[in-house]
Design a protein that fits this description.
With 366 residues, this protein is an alpha/beta fold. It folds into 2 domains: 230 residues, Aspartate Aminotransferase, domain 2 (3-Layer(aba) Sandwich), CATH 3.40.640.10; 119 residues, Aspartate Aminotransferase, domain 1 (Alpha-Beta Complex). It has 11 helices and 14 strands. Strands 1-9-8-5-4-2-3 form a 7-stranded mixed sheet, sandwiched between helices. It has a 3-stranded antiparallel sheet with strand order 7-6-12, with no helix packed on it. Strands 10-11 form a two-stranded antiparallel ribbon. α1 crosses α7 and α9 packs across α11. It is globular. 46% of the residues are buried. It binds pyridoxal-5'-phosphate. Pyridoxal-5'-phosphate (PLP) binds next to α3 and α4.
């Protein structure tokens, strides 16, 4: 019997009765779009994050696009983000017609290197998108301080970090806007696509609500060109069931991570780097090793899944060739792409399974 990277089936079975009931209730209500489940989920997540507003959208990518649009970012603007993240963090900048500008990441946390941020700011810079990679927050307050000096907006890409904290502040709640993804494998995942934008700014929230629904406030009166991007009632009901367990699950992930930290210490590999001010949610537990392929092969040979996050830094993606970056531009991100490997870390993982995984990794170095 193997060990998957994430066990969504086991999670479903643990919630089956409650979950089936929630889904059937939506079917019975025959209200599928813009109903009470979405509205309640928005209120629950706004309260959880300690912000005034939450706007549910179709997915985490749309959440970024709509956040950028609502802040008025478009052609001629530059937006700074990390080269070590999922493609959408920068793709969305290009989607609104702006130019992605990359800054290398910190060698310990693999989040944006804030010491290098300022030198990439130009008169065209309008916003910064810090990404809380693998569920550990970057120091967003410091990002905001830097941004304030240049009159820039900050959008937190918190797709991997719902529930994470930095000095007691929840991911997504510190910047002008924060975005979440409810893709099935995220810490709070639906059974399909989903996303959300949170903000303290009610005017921004009104703009986001208009943008997600064809630029329309009053039905059939369109004030601007918008999008069709909303969270359906079935997904919202599913997410509301799971949301009750989010803190418990995130705590369990931290416990699994602590067990790995202990089981794997002393080996010639880099364990996930911690910022002492951050309370991470371990969306992924990512090791770094020059012998990544050997570790992957060994794990695969005993039926244990592992995965590379991310094989190619964004500045070297084919789609961004037009930006003119070259290998060597961001050495920390490039090295991480050669060495990073996620091993199974999810709430249902047992101590025995973790010992088995750590044992297999140790054998590589024997
Ligand atoms: C998953 C993810 C997204 C995109 O979310 P989708 O819901 O898949 O569109 C954006 N940024 C990061 C960092 C992600 O991990």
């Amino acid at each position: 019997m193997g060990i998957p990277l994430l066990d969504l089936k086991a999670q479903y079975l643990s919630l089956k009765e409650e979950m089936d009931q929630a889904i059937l209730q939506v079917l019975d209500s025959a209200k599928f779009i813009f109903g009470p489940e979405m509205k309640t989920l928005e209120q629950e997540i706004a309260r959880y994050c300690g912000v005034g507003e939450a706007v549910a959208v179709g997915n985490g990518t749309d959440a970024l696009v709509l956040a950028l649009k609502s802040l008025g970012i478009g052609p001629g603007d530059e937006v700074i983000t990390s080269p070590f993240t999922f493609f959408a963090s920068a793709e969305t900048i290009a989607q609104v017609g702006a130019t992605p500008v990359f800054v290398d990441v910190d060698p310990v946390t693999l989040n944006l290197d804030l010491n290098q941020l300022e030198k990439r700011i130009t008169p065209k810079t309008r916003a910064i998108i810090p990404v809380h990679i693998f569920g550990q927050m970057v120091d967003v307050e410091r990002v905001l301080e830097i941004a304030a000096r240049y009159d820039l907006k900050v959008i937190e890409d918190a797709a991997q970090a719902i529930g994470a904290e930095y000095r007691g502040h929840k991911a997504g709640s510190v910047g002008h806007a924060g975005t979440f993804s409810f893709f099935p494998t995220k810490n709070l995942g639906g059974y399909g696509d989903g996303g959300m934008v949170v903000t303290q700014d009610e005017h921004l929230a009104a703009e986001l609500r208009m943008l997600r629904f064809h630029g329309c406030q009053t039905k059939y009166y369109h004030d601007q060109i918008g999008y069709n991007s909303r969270l359906d009632e079935i997904q919202a009901a599913i997410l509301r069931v799971k949301f009750k367990y989010l803190d418990t699950w995130n705590e369990a992930r931290r416990e699994k991570a602590a067990v790995y930290d202990q089981l794997l210490q002393g080996l010639p590999l880099t364990l996930p780097g911690r910022d002492p001010q951050a309370k991470p949610v371990y969306h992924l537990y990512v090791l770094r090793s020059e012998r990544r392929q050997d570790i992957m092969d060994k794990l695969a040979s005993v039926g244990i899944a592992s995965a590379i996050y991310y094989p190619v830094p964004l500045h070297l993606q084919k789609a961004f060739r037009y930006l003119g970056y070259q290998a060597g531009d961001f050495p920390v991100a490039e090295k991480a792409c050669h060495e990073a490997l996620a091993i199974p870390c999810y709430p249902e993982l047992t101590r025995e399974q973790q010992e088995q995984i750590a044992g297999a990794i140790k054998e590589v170095y024997r």
